[in-house]
Amino acid sequence: YTQGALEHPSYEAVCSGATGHTEVVQLTYKPDEVSFAELCKLLFTRINPSLKDQVGNDRGTQYRHGIYYHTPEQKAEAEAVIADVKASLGGAPFYAELEEAKVYYPAEEYHQQYLEKGGRMGAKQSAEKGCTETIRCYG
Question: How far apart are CA 99 and CA 66, in angstroms?
């Protein structure tokens, strides 16, 4: 979780929408192997930035899209990618924020590998089931 005001938020608090946090993935990467811009481009092949506060069927401010940078160079690379994405949307709305990264809090252990563990319905999710979606695998 990041971008919120509450220190060490719980999943339940984040889901309430009252903390200001969003659920995120924090990446560690090797810039000599992949650029920040390439990672930003990849993000936009996995999400629909014209959907506000929504990923799949999940809705709420904790599901808002964003790029949270750590350096001025990352910000500049993300701005260039965002400009290209906006241009490709043909006037459709764009809902992905670009902000300096705040404190990152890993989700609780029970929420790590959430779909693999069974998610809310207790049915494990796995790419081995023939899933073709790039982020989720229900089935």
Answer: 8
- The pair of structure tokens assigned to 18 is 């009252």
Q: What is the rounded distance in angstroms from the CA atom of residue 75 to the CA atom of residue 67? A: 9
22 burial (CB, 10 Å; 0-12 / 13-18 / 19+) is: buried
132: which residues sit within 8 A by CB, 6+ positions away?
none
Mind listing the pLDDT tens digit of every residue in the chain (139 residues)? 999 999 999 999 998 999 999 999 899 999 999 999 999 999 999 889 999 998 877 899 999 999 999 999 999 999 999 999 999 999 999 999 999 999 999 888 776 766 666 666 666 665 565 556 655 544 3
10 Å CB burial of residue 12 (0-12, 13-18, 19+) is exposed
Let me know: does 105 contact 1? Beta carbons within 8 Å: yes
